[in-house]
Amino acid sequence: MMKRLSLAICLACCTLGISAQFEQHDDDTKYATDLVKPGTPAPDFKMKIPDGKTIQLSKYAKGKTVVLDFWASWCPDCRKDAPEVVRMYEAYRQYGVEFIGISMDTDVEAWKKAIDKFGIKYPQVSELKKFKETDIAKAYGVNWIPSMVVIGEDGKVKLSTVLTYKVDKYLKEWTTGEYKPSRKGEEVFIDGDHGRLKAIIQSPKLQDGEKCPMVVFCHGFSGSKDGPMFELIADTLQAHGIASIRFDFNGHGDSEGAFQDMTVPNEIEDAKKVVEYARSLKFVSDLAIVGHSQGGVVASMTAGQLSEQLGQPAFKAVALMAPAAVLRDDAIRGNTMGKMYDPFDPGEYVELFGGLKLGGNYIRTAFSLPIYETAAKYQGPALIIHGTADRVVPYTYGERFHEIWPKSELVIQDYFDHGFSQNIYRSTDIVADFLIRQLK
Q1: What angle do the packed helices 326-333 and 360-367 form, to 10 degrees?
Q2: Reported confidence tier of residue 10, pLDDT bands at 50, 70, 90
Q3: Which of 139, 207, 212, 296 could form a disulfide with 291 if both were Cys (CB 3.0 to 4.6 A apart)?
Q4: Across all residues in the chain, what is the average pLDDT?
Q5: pLDDT at 19 over 90
Q6: pLDDT 10s digits, 207-259
Q7: How far apart are CA 418 and CA 389, in angstroms?
Q8: Burial level of 128, CB count in 10 A (0-12/13-18/19+)?
Q9: Which of 421, 439, 424 is nearest to 383 (CA)?
Q10: With 70 as the cut, is the pLDDT of residue 168 above it?
Q11: In 203-356, where do the E strands start and end?
């Protein structure tokens, strides 16, 4: 299996540039310091469920992977996280993963009411004592709730955290494996605005004459068609009978053209060429389009322009991942990727990170780019997903797409950065699930 470092590097390539992100510290550095450490035997316990019966950890969880969820009905953060914990239980119980809720409630009726409210089906236990007075909190070093501890089949702690997304990522990799490059698909070349574009098509097995939907993927600034973000979605879609095409924009990856000549308008023309190509494929029925970062801007504006031409939504669905509508404001401020310049006279190019040269035409066209005005001409189903810890594109830019698209869904992921690196599996699953709902 690939090391987690490899995944992080792949994710960085999907963002607006690795140097643009800031170092981040998560809540575990503050609230999980005393939690029982990975590698240590999980302390055994006997505790009562609401009806008074007793559960003993060592007997209930023998030889199984178990997640302990420390929470309380009176805890606001616990109530906020409860639906996600319930979702994880439903997702991973098929793999034999057990969950046990450990409540810090003192009021048994309030505890029962919360169990019913959130539809919790896994066992719940409590000492019915004040949080700091419980033996279980002392044994596991719980100073903050919600907290979660994952115990392996060998009875040892594998993960201790106050962040649900870390548990989800651990369980995803433990049950289905870490990301590996898919190396799947057929290579094709499509004439774009500035030369030929290299693309990869993934499609399900079809009978003669059978058709299926296809999803077009648009990567971000300085990114490429490859990497976990799009490949994970494409693999899931393929497994559900949906084809995909992902490509490198001009001046990126394996496509022709110079990065210095790249602008958002000519990327929109690239996207249109790919959409036209996809529509020409005999096995393709409906189309959807997905974009990350600058690719999200391109996808939204492509959807708007084509919808205006057709007089109806040009796609069955649009999904934007951290859409970088901030790029216009950056150009107006004269600050792209931390590089300062005169927005009224940027010159031939601006030197960016890694030797990249941002063309003056990119800045001049971005300065007056009608992003939301154009995107608003698409009024079909849409998904916008954005992280609150995105330091490249504040999530409010994603919220505005939700405001102009009445049929859109908005998913704001707490703590997630621009590349969704906290748990790329969860973010890509959300996008894939949305597309499957809209296309099947």
Answers
A1: 110
A2: very low
A3: 296
A4: 93
A5: no
A6: 999 999 999 999 999 999 999 999 999 999 999 999 999 999 999 999 999 99
A7: 7
A8: middle
A9: 439
A10: yes
A11: 212-218, 243-247, 284-292, 317-321, 335-336, 339-340, 349-351
pLDDT at 355: 87
How does DSSP assign 259-302, residue by residue?
GGG--HHHHHHHHHHHHHHHHH-TTEEEEEEEEETHHHHHHHHH
**178 closest CA partner among 231, 234, 214, 244:** 231
Q: 3-state DSSP: the chain helix, strand, coil percent, rounded to 5? A: 40, 20, 40
Query: Does residue 275 contact residue 269 with C-beta atoms inside 8 Å?
Result: no
What DSSP string describes 11-72?
HHHHSS-GGGS-----THHHHSTTSPPTTSBPPP-EEE-TTS-EEEHHHHTTTS-EEEEEE-
Inter-CA distances, 152 with 57, 96, 108, Å: 12, 12, 30
- Residue 183 burial by Cβ neighbours in a 10 Å radius (0-12, 13-18, 19+): exposed
pTM for this structure?
Answer: 0.92
The token pair that represents 243 in the structure block? 């084809």
Q: Write the CA distances from 153 to 42, 63, 70, 174, 295, integer angstroms.
A: 11, 4, 20, 12, 42
Three-state DSSP at 248 gives coil
Per residue in 252-284, pLDDT (tens digit) is 999 999 999 999 999 999 999 999 999 999 999
